[in-house]
Amino acid sequence: MKAKPGEEEGKNWLLIKKRDNASISESGAEPVETMTRSVSSGRTMQEIASGTEIEPVNIDPASLPGAHEADQPEFIDLNLATLVSKPPEGDNWVHEIKYDGYRILCRLSGGRARLFSRNGKEWTDRFSEVAGAAAGIAVESAFLDGEVAFVDQHGRTDFQALQNILQGAKKAGRLVYFVFDIPFCAGCDLTQTPLIKRKELLKKLLSFKSSTDQSVVLYADHIPGQGEEVFRNACRLGLEGIVSKRARRSKSWLKVKCSMRQEFVIGGFTEHGGSRTGFGALLLGYFDKQGKLVYAGKVGTGFNDQTLGTLAQRLKKMETGKPGFSNPPTGFDAKGVHWIKPELVAEVEFSAWTDEGILRHPSFKGLREDKDPTDVVLENSMPDFLSPELSPLPSSHLSPRHPGDLQSGASVLNPEFSPVNVALSNPDRVFYPEIGVTKSALAEYYTEIAGWIMPHLARRPLTLVRCPEGWDKECFFQKHLAEAASKVLRSIPIMEKDELHYYSVTDNIDGVIDLVQIGALEIHIWGSREDNLEQPDMVIFDLDPAPEVEWAGMIEAARTMRGRLLELGLESFVKTTGGKGLHIVAPLTPKADWETVKAFSKAVAQSLVRESPREYIATMSKEKRRGKIFIDYLRNGRGATSIAPYSTRSRQGAPISTPVKWDELSPGLKPDSYNLQNIRRRLSHLKEDPWAGYFSVRQEITEEMKKKVGI
């Protein structure tokens, strides 16, 4: 730099900035191409030259309900939607289009816009056009939540085209940032503000933008109510699906997809053949509850030449000598496979799952560089019996296959089931005073028998009998839990009589201990799991005796029911209830709906009543039940529950509902024979699981069975 005449003081200086890794953006664009707006006014050079002003917007976020002043954070965690099979109904829900793009959080501050992916990676350079347009929004500070998508000539979003655009391809259409939420605005945290109020503010804010930005940053509108109709029309128009949100203050976001589609981790690729270049197919998988990568099949369609070329280069750099899958393909299926480090995530559309857990008709939609591979778990429904966490535990851990591992006072657990996140308050509170069982003692019991109870509880909606002060004090039945009532229990939405309610679900023993913390002395389960909520995976018969019925009559009734089910082709298992009766349970492959299973169970019960009307009854009338056994089939209705195996009961002596072998039914066994004082001894002396084979039985209610019972 040469100084002006008369200003020289010493030497003149020449500063040269060489190119380095930071001299250009990730996208390859120069800073003058991406940072095109004034920091002070937010205007472009053209707008400054023409005298165009960004019209100020009169907003007052501090006046909104639930708003409170706060410093603007660097990043805000995003609400993620839960996949459900159908949209919720009711006017307290609003429905939005599910855009086929990248979820992007936009941080506005001081006239500058920064873009972040859902996992916090900065993507400002990738979508510089969007960042430039968003910077023109007239607000001092804000966070915008939305989706960046590529909109084609027909007005539909196209994720594959978006991928190609990021790789430099040219295609007819445009990038659009669809903004659907504003969790922070002008120094106010709005996360506790009702969604509908936030959207009103957002719509007003986005209506005051530079006219040149109207086609880049758009307000994502919604439709109140009419969930089924909105979803049906979205699918008819070829959209990915819809997202449903509560209009009031809530983090409950649900998504319904028009087709089966989710992310998978890429674990390998095959050689290309014929005229094709790059590679043949990608090997896909997902992480299970134990953190193991489970193989889910190959995808060989959905690629264009550009994707084949660029992706092949990346894959070759990631090759490794051994598979990352816990169950890699073998034999012919493994021929020509190159294993890679499981670091890339692909979005794949498919038609169904096979019974072996392999994708049917998969099609590649694009890479998901906004998602961490370790976050990729099974999302779409598949048969429950394929879920690893429902199978018996490994031999190195306590499980029904290795009952002898349980010794008095021992706690040999699968890490998946070990309690690590729950602290008990008032651990010395007495729940069963007659035997001195405290809250901590009950928690210890469930911890020790986690391997026995969790396969029966996992992913089932739960209802509870709570006795916060002990079984002999006030108790109450609790069906629904409030949203976010627990840090370790999950809350899942279930529609009941046109209203959405939330049920608790637990994936590990932490959830059970949390139930103990709130005084739950009985845990009751649905007859289906959340992945197949409308298809029961069991049919259950509750044999409930009148007071006059002797135990020998109950044994005979149980054996008669077992015989009837065997005649129909169904294997069954028996357990004590911890109360007065017995439960006969036949596991099912989840295919038939609730109505079918209930009608079948009713017909089976009535067939026994017709044959032995003096011994059995299938109606709830107490007047007619004298001296008879009530065959309760009503537990097979949607929303009905039964006591979970190995759950305690809220009765004197802490009895436990206990699975037994059929040959254990004898005069010496009673419905309340097992309790907290002797259950450990029983389990430690067993040589095999009393319900051995329960989770491997493959049976369903057939048309022939229904004909045999008259339906």
- Average pLDDT value? 83
The rounded Rg comes to 31 Å
Calculate the terminal CA-CA distance, rounded to whole Å: 96 Å
Question: Segments where pLDDT lies below 50 for 5+ residues?
Answer: 21-35, 380-420
Q: How would you sum up this structure, described in words?
A:
The protein is α+β, with helices and mostly antiparallel strands and 711 residues long. The chain folds into 3 domains: 31-257, D-amino Acid Aminotransferase, Chain A, domain 1; 260-382, Nucleic acid-binding proteins (OB fold (Dihydrolipoamide Acetyltransferase, E2P), Beta Barrel), CATH 2.40.50.140; 538-708, DNA primase, PRIM domain. The chain is 19% helix and 24% strand. The strands form 8 sheets. Strands 1, 4, 5, 6, 7, 8 and 9 form a 7-stranded mixed sheet that branches. Strands 30-31-27-29-28-33 form a 6-stranded mixed sheet, covered by helices on one side. It has a 5-stranded mixed sheet with strand order 2-12-11-3-10, covered by helices on one side. A hairpin with a 5-residue loop joins strand 14 (282-287) and strand 15. Helix 8 runs antiparallel to helix 10. The longest helix has 18 residues, at 551-568. Residues 21-35 and 380-420 have low confidence and may be disordered.
Question: What features would you highlight for this structure?
Answer:
single chain, 711 residues, alpha+beta, D-amino Acid Aminotransferase, Chain A, domain 1, OB fold (Dihydrolipoamide Acetyltransferase, E2P), DNA primase, PRIM domain, 3 domains, 14 helices, globular
